[in-house]
Amino acid sequence: MNLGKATILAAAGAVYTFIYRGVATLVPSWFTNLQVVQFSLVLSFVAGLFLVNFFYSFMKGYVRADQNRLKNASAAAVIAAAALALLNVKELIVVFDADVFRSLARNRHVEAVVPWVCSLLFLYFFCHCTPPQNNLPS
């Protein structure tokens, strides 16, 4: 997939995520229906995959072979987006009451640590995706 299409899908996924969380905060009674919760979490997982695809497309389509710093930062962003998508899988296991990885799905420590680590990896990406400012006047 080209970078332009991946960008549009990632933006649509981000918009969905903000709307979903906003509605869940303002009108929590809508999410008492199991089918609504399941559908919302499946869409959240798809939005997470769009983000993974964006960073992967960015790394493959935009970063040159000689840009090691940007390549490493992009790989960190792919890992962070994938980890966040895996958190959605964890929620899907619980909501769909699947027998797969049930003990891992019930572990709450992962939910506490992964978003912080992912935030740091995204920060690393954004700090390294801008060119160095060596030629600015003092």
Overall description:
- The chain has 138 residues and is mainly alpha-helical.
- It has one domain.
- 75% of the residues lie in helices and 0% in strands.
- The protein has five helices and no strands.
- The longest helix has 28 residues.
* Radius of gyration over all CA atoms, rounded: 18 Å
In total, the number of domains comes to 1
Strand content: under 5%
Tally the helices: what do you get?
Answer: 5
- Alpha carbon gap, first and last residue: 42 Å
SS class: mainly alpha
Low-confidence runs:
none
Shape: globular
Give the biggest beta sheet. none
- What is the ordering of alpha helices and beta strands? HHHHH
* Average predicted confidence as pLDDT: 88
Number of strands: 0
Oligomer: single chain
**Helical coverage, percent range:** over 70%
What are the main properties of this structure?
138 residues; mainly alpha; 5 helices; globular
